[in-house]
Design brief:
The complex is a heterodimer of chains A (about 300) and B (about 180). By secondary structure, chain A is mainly beta. Chain A has three helices and twelve strands. Chain A has one domain: Porin (Beta Barrel). In chain A, strands 1-2-3-4-5-6-7-8-9-10-11-12 form a twelve-stranded antiparallel barrel. In chain A, a hairpin with a 4-residue loop joins strand 2 and strand 3. Chain B is built from three helices and nine strands. Chain B has an eight-stranded antiparallel barrel with strand order 1-2-3-5-6-7-8-9. In chain B, strand 6 and strand 7 form a beta hairpin. The longest helix of chain B is centred in the N-terminal third of the chain and has 18 residues. The chains are: A mainly beta (about 300), B alpha+beta (about 180). Chains A and B meet through helix 1 and helix 3 of A and helix 1, strand 1, strand 2, strand 3 and helix 2 of B.
């Protein structure tokens, strides 16, 4: 009888020892809760572009991002043109992170032989569960300059060929899989086709991504241009679909869009294709991240 | 009956004594390192919570995975989003005990074995590692180095980047604890 009692006591003792073990962890986790600090949400988007639209993301400090944006011809251009694959439009871009918040970029696209340069600043960064900051906001300022020669328009000056973009990129990672972005846009053209067309144009873009696996997502973007701003051409709003595949330092995006051009001042206002007619451009974006500074490369330990 | 009273009083003494021998820190260090010819990975966290109960020889660690700082921002993003999924499983924790006799009241250095369970990425695995404890004027510090396999914790690494990450990740733990009141 006595031995049973001692056994019982031993059990209580060992139980209390066990309880102590997990209560140590509880003590840590309680302390953690009290001292909780917010973290910035990462990976709202995998790439610097949804399809054509820029995202709030920018390369990290000291990181260089090389982007190839490639669009074939129209899918409905027939078997003679191999359903568009005979033709190609391309933008080559370099983005560089000066700090964790500030990035610059340059690009050259074949469409109208256009150069572009931009600055992007991460004004606000969304924070996690502690939720002090609900959205990420980046500011984008871009200048574009097309160099295509028009023999019938010898009067075009350099200044006439320049246009500007200012965008407020507002995004929220709603769940680990779903991110949405809203983009109020202001465009300014130094020269427009007719007096009826506006030099200052306002547009609204919206886009998002839904992750389907840990490294893949489906992307959608739509760029709405309120009517009455461009009257001289038969333009349509740009709508694009994409499929992101991420592997290490690469992001590969397969895209479908009714826009052939890739730069803001072109795809928002000069998209002539219509999805309903099959004027769809198939293409891809590939980005590759390089760490160029010593700090970004990571020193040996 | 006398025996019971004696035993109970021993237990009570033991327990109350235990309260006075708890060491704790909120600024412990855990770093992990991987070195291949293709890429060096280095991630460090200075906000490790650790507690050691000197009387029961129990200890516990808890750390927020988002607190690991990498040299490359993209690596940090991949670590959180693709590998440990820190939005789903924010913490890694360890609970266990150590073996070896330590005099908590006088200065000295002790080699011990730490044995317990490590939880990471929602997977709990037993872990037994050597460590060194040092008592210095009532403060307790400890260091330990060991290796972990990501695959043991259901962290899958795509074949395309497998060569860039070592099979065994070196983990370095260092804590400096004060007596907890």
């Amino acid at each position: 009888m006595k031995s049973i009692f001692y056994l019982f006591l031993l059990m209580i003792f060992s139980f209390s020892a066990y309880a102590q073990d997990s209560s140590l962890l509880k003590m840590l986790n309680d302390s953690m809760k009290v001292h909780e600090k917010p973290f910035y949400v990462s990976g709202t988007f995998k790439a610097t572009h949804i399809v054509n639209m820029q995202t709030i993301e920018a390369p990290g400090a000291g990181a260089l991002n090389f982007v190839i944006q490639h669009r074939f011809g129209q899918l409905n251009s027939g078997s003679y043109n191999f359903f568009g694959l005979d033709n190609a439009t391309l933008r080559l871009g370099l983005d560089y992170g000066i700090s964790d918040r500030f990035a610059v970029g340059i690009g050259r696209s074949t469409y109208e032989k256009t150069y572009d340069a931009y600055v992007k600043y991460k004004l606000l960064r969304q924070t996690d569960a502690t939720n002090k900051i609900p959205v990420s906001i980046s500011l984008l300022g871009q200048i574009t300059y097309y160099t295509l020669k028009y023999p019938e328009k010898p009067y075009l000056t350099d200044n006439d060929r320049i246009s500007y973009t200012a965008q407020l990129l507002i995004a929220r990672k709603l769940t680990r899989n779903l991110s949405l972005q809203l983009v109020p846009t202001y465009l300014h053209y130094n020269l427009v086709a007719t007096p009826g067309d506006k030099n200052n144009i306002f547009a609204l873009g919206a886009g998002g991504r839904m992750k389907i696996t840990r490294r893949m997502s489906i992307n959608v973007e739509y760029n709405y241009l309120p009517s009455g701003q461009i009257v001289s051409s038969d333009r349509h709003d740009s709508f694009s679909l994409g499929w992101d595949i991420e592997t290490g330092g690469h992001v590969f995006q397969l895209v479908f869009s009714n826009s052939q051009s890739i730069v803001e001042t072109q795809y928002i206002t000069q998209t002539t294709g219509r999805w309903g007619n099959g004027d769809i451009y198939f293409g891809f974006n590939v980005s590759r991240n390089f760490n160029v500074t010593k700090k970004a490369k990571g020193s040996k330990h | 009956m006398k025996k019971i009273i004696a035993l109970t009083s021993i237990i009570i003494t033991f327990c109350t004594q235990g309260q006075a021998q708890i060491f704790m820190t909120r600024t412990g260090f855990i770093g992990f390192y991987s070195k291949t010819s293709l890429e060096d990975i280095k991630a460090e966290n200075n906000q490790v919570y650790a507690v050691i109960d000197g009387s029961k020889k129990n200890l516990a660690f808890s750390v927020l995975l988002k607190g690991f700082i990498f040299r490359k921002e993209l690596m940090q993003e991949h670590f959180n989003d693709n590998y440990v999924e820190s939005d789903k499983y924010p913490k890694a924790s360890f609970t266990g005990s150590y073996s070896g006799d330590i005099n908590l009241t006088s200065n000295g250095s002790y080699k011990i074995m730490v044995k317990g369970n490590l939880t990471l990425h929602n997977i709990t695995k037993p872990l037994e590692v050597p460590a060194t404890l040092e008592i210095n004027n009532g403060k307790l510090s400890g260091i330990s180095d060991f290796k972990l396999k990501p695959e043991d914790f259901n962290i899958t690494i795509p074949s395309i980047v497998r060569d860039k990450i070592e099979n065994d990740i070196t983990v370095h733990v260092k804590i400096d604890c004060n007596t907890s009141k």
